[in-house]
């Protein structure tokens, strides 16, 4: 078949694929085009289509066919180099005029062929310098250059079905050692150059590039990218001068403050990863403390201004960032950092507001509660005379948590379609994990508060149990649910007595006081006087055990 005939066949079938709704006809079109992605003789035909077609979907299908060829076929080295060189020139000459999805497909193809040839020929490694040539040109070309670097980092960081895992790791290590730092430096330089180009696509691309670099799997541990949790970031020691430079942290705080909400989250995600750098990365305690102080100052300014936190993605990322402070840094370092007093006060206020905004805050607040839990359990190891102020704020956090749960119950009780949180065991456990440590840290204050709120509810419930005919069923049912929550909280406190690190006569006294009130409730439920005791019978028997 002549090349021009192949061209028109391909374009025609490409149009069919994008317009046909009938599955049989689509399947026929796909079978017709399959040869382009499995037969190496058709590689030149794909190039001809790229050179001559003006149909975006034909261009994308040609690019996709070449991607499958590169991934699944063992192509000769020279052919892969030819494809690589062709794509660089093609993107430089025609890239600005192409649809974004076509550019994305071609960039993916370029990065895939680069990855597969990375260890075969050093000419593949020139892609970074060639991407830099794009950055020095007009905005359209600059965007293509940033897309190439973004895709290259992503490509190197993820496995491909066409590569054995050992070879994949060798390529990733080689890329990390030889080129990743250069890409990070390019991203930082571009961030400074584009700082005044507020809200532009280029800003979004360069922030994404920085995040891709900082999210790289430096140790080859293959972490779960779908998870919200991240471990220690194992940035190489050779990056130390750039990471410790104050301008590196500051540029991300600046971008968070100036950019639009739809990608200001990227700046927070970069800060989250910088805050997660392993402790041994810093040359000494002084440089680590300086880095921490900068993080605290930046987050304090966000807390003071509230900028961007009305956006839920930003809010969630910011909670995660605050949660990392006690994961990576010791309490003594936090207390001795400049501005700790103001910072911990602002974090406490932010936590309380978040607790009472339970409908909006969702699960994000538990990053904050986890931070408070880790803070109070570290107090006994603290060897400094500096005030940590945790004894002042911890009881307020407990009060805020319990009162906000009661507020949520009032709302959920009036909404028949809402899910009862007590029926979701996993969510309930997440909510109660931090309670014992915060309560036992200031057990007298927290224990008195729990008893204070429990006694009138218990009395109302007991009165209703004795006067069923006159009882307000709605109020009684609400009291029952509140008591169920309190029983869960008391059970969590008692259950973790041995691992909380807190002991003594005062602890024993309040353990007994809280237990006595639960036993009092059990006597009511066991009496059988109340018509709606099924929930409490079940909860009491399990919790006390």
Automatic annotation (TrEMBL):
Give a Pfam family name: TPR_XPO7
Which InterPro entries is this protein grouped with?
Answer: ARM-like, ARM-type_fold, Importin-beta_N, TPR_XPO7/RBP17, XPO4/7-like
| A GO molecular-function annotation | nuclear export signal receptor activity
Q: Does the keyword S-adenosyl-L-methionine apply?
A: no
Q: Which domain of life is it from?
A: Eukaryota
Location within or outside the cell? Cytoplasm; Nucleus
- Domain (Importin N-terminal) ranges: 29-93
Q: Which UniProt keywords apply?
A: Cytoplasm, Nucleus, Protein transport, Transport
A GO BP entry is: protein export from nucleus
* Record's GO cellular component terms: cytoplasm; nuclear pore
Q: Which family does it belong to?
A: Belongs to the exportin family.
What name does UniProt use for this protein? Importin N-terminal domain-containing protein
Species the sequence originates in: Castanea mollissima (Chinese chestnut)
Give the source lineage, highest ranks first: Eukaryota, Viridiplantae, Streptophyta, Embryophyta, Tracheophyta
């Amino acid at each position: 078949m002549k090349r021009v005939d192949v061209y028109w066949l391909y374009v025609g079938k490409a149009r069919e694929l994008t317009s046909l709704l009938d599955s049989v006809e689509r399947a026929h079109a796909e079978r017709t085009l399959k040869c382009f992605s499995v037969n190496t003789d058709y590689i030149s035909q794909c190039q001809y289509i790229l050179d001559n077609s003006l149909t975006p979907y034909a261009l994308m299908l040609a690019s996709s066919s070449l991607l499958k060829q590169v991934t699944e076929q063992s192509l000769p080295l020279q052919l892969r180099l030819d494809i690589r060189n062709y794509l660089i020139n093609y993107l430089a000459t025609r890239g600005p005029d192409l649809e974004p999805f076509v550019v994305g497909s071609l960039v993916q193809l370029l990065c895939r062929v680069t990855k597969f040839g990375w260890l075969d020929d050093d000419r593949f490694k020139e892609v970074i310098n060639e991407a830099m040539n794009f950055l020095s040109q007009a905005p359209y070309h600059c965007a293509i250059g940033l897309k190439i670097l973004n895709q290259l980092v992503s490509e190197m960081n993820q496995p491909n079905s066409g590569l054995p895992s050992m070879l994949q790791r060798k390529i990733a290590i080689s890329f990390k050692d030889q080129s990743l730092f250069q890409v990070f430096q390019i991203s930082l330089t571009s961030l400074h150059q584009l700082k005044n180009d507020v809200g532009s696509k280029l800003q979004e691309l360069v922030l994404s590039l920085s995040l891709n670099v900082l999210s790289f799997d430096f140790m080859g541990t293959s972490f779960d990218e779908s998870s919200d949790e991240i471990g220690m970031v194992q940035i190489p020691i050779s990056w130390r001068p750039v990471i410790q430079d104050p301008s590196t942290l500051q540029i991300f705080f600046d971008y968070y403050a100036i950019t639009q909400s739809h990608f200001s989250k990227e700046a927070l995600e970069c800060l989250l990863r910088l805050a997660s750098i392993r402790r041994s990365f810093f040359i000494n305690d002084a440089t680590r403390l300086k880095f921490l102080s900068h993080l605290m100052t930046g987050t304090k300014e966000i807390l003071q201004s509230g900028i961007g936190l009305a956006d839920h993605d930003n809010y969630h990322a910011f909670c995660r960032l605050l949660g990392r402070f006690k994961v990576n840094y010791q309490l003594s370092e936090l207390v001795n950092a400049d501005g700790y007093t103001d910072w911990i006060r602002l974090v406490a206020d932010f936590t309380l507001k978040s607790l009472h905004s339970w409908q909006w805050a969702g699960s994000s607040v538990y990053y904050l509660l986890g931070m408070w839990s880790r803070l109070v359990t570290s107090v006994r190891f603290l060897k400094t005379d500096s005030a940590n102020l945790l004894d002042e704020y911890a009881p307020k956090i407990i009060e805020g948590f319990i009162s906000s749960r009661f507020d949520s119950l009032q709302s959920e009780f009036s909404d028949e379609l809402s899910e009862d949180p007590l029926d979701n065991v996993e969510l309930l456990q997440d909510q109660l994990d931090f309670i014992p440590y915060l309560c036992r840290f200031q057990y007298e204050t927290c224990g008195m508060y729990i008893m204070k709120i429990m006694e009138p509810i218990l009395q109302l419930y007991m009165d209703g149990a004795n006067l069923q005919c006159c009882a307000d069923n709605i109020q009684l049912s609400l009291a029952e649910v509140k008591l169920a929550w309190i029983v869960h909280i008391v059970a969590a406190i008692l259950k973790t007595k041995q691992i909380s690190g807190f002991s003594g006569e005062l602890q024993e006294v309040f353990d007994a006081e809280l237990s006595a009130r639960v036993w009092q409730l059990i006597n009511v439920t066991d009496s059988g006087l109340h018509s709606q005791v099924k929930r409490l019978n079940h909860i009491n028997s399990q919790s006390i055990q």
